[in-house]
Amino acid sequence: MPSNKMIGTVVIGAAAYLMRNKKTREKTMSQIKSLATPENIDKVKSQLQSLTKSKSNKPSAH
Fold this sequence. Notes:
The protein is mainly α. The protein has helices at residues 4-20, 22-35, 38-57. The longest helix is centred in the last third of the chain and has 20 residues, at 38-57. The model has no long low-confidence stretch (mean pLDDT 82).
């Protein structure tokens, strides 16, 4: 699993690229808007909630 530092570096690099390149920024934003439908948002929320519940229900190894 990638480290948080590695993920952060990739995210910052991608953000910097998008800020400089208007065509890519507009294309990316239109793709994100098309994916961010209320149905997809609800689906992701329910998956995250189920993940959170399953992690909190696991017994600790103490």
